[in-house]
Design goal:
The chain is of the alpha/beta class and about 375 residues long. It has one domain: Aldolase class I (TIM Barrel, Alpha-Beta Barrel). It is built from 14 helices and 17 strands. The strands form 4 sheets. The chain has an 8-stranded parallel barrel with strand order 3-4-7-11-12-15-16-17, surrounded by 6 helices. A 3-stranded mixed beta sheet has the order 8-10-9.
Amino acid sequence: MTSSELTTPLTLRSGVVVPQRIAMAPMVAQGSDSATGHITEEDVAYFARRSTVAGMVITGAAYVIDHGRGFAHQISIADDSCTEGLARVASAIKADGAVAVVQLYHGGREASPVFESQGRVLGPSAQQFDWLPYPTDEMTEVEITDTITAFGEATRRAIEAGFDGVEIHGANHYLLQQFFSSFSNHRDDAWGGDLERRMAFPLAVTDEVMRVAATAGRPFAVGYRYCPDEVHGDTVGYDVDESNQLVEALVARGVDYIHVSLFTGNASAPTSGDTRPYGTITREVVDGRCPVIIVSNVFTLADAEAALEYGDIVAIGRAALMEPEFTGKIVAGKADDIATSVAGRFHDLDLPAGLIDWYLTTGRTLLPPLPGIEEYLPQA
């Protein structure tokens, strides 16, 4: 894949045109108001600085209902009071022609701020997880249907705010993946049991989001992010063969893209069964019906070109933090000027204070490190 092909526009199934085949991966920026989830000036500055970072910019997880909040300074799209601020973010992203997408999220068992404020966290089943200091309560039928409706209402707000699409967050062990996983879903009703019933909740969310998206009156994209397997030693929530069936159902419903969530490199592959790269497997299932977004460990033009062996759009995460003009420099023929380190400039990248603090303190063991950040870490 050459840089000219990377900068060739791509038209999604909905009619949304992505001007370059590079996306900014969804990352929680830790800039929103801690009490309300409302957009702050830090959020707007962060996205405005990155108006040429990619052809598609996907915001970090925006929680769709109050009991889905997973982070202290997370964006909310849970009520109509959020729309004005979200419109400012959409406008900032689109200032130089990028497509603006907001990621829709529910943390499920990972909604630790909800436990702190409400004393109760929801998931598919009542369960105590070794790594969580609180139990998970099983969602009632009403809570399930209310959450599905909330994803639809969040889509309406995204439309009203001027976004070009939404991405359903079905990855990274959050609520939709929890329902799909036999490790965390022990239900014996219509929402759990065999594979078809474990697929029911993520597919019901997708159906509702697509129903509302169809009312936009303009091209409006719906993407879906998923983890291709959930295998941790002897703990298996689902394997690639099962997730392939979910992908097939999503693509058959007409989603605009499938986003493969990876953390160990864009060429990562399963360790058993079909050991081809995850992106290759996903593209085979999709069979050209919509683009596949591939992600992880892309810092340069050469990295992006190589990543597109495994997907149709390459997403950048840490590179978007370090180099706000990543795609703009490629388009301008200045790819050699792309910054690949935060050394000497970490505090000059319009990163929200909460994100800076995260990288320097509590998030150090959770987040993949930013090259060059060593000079900013507290001295032992």
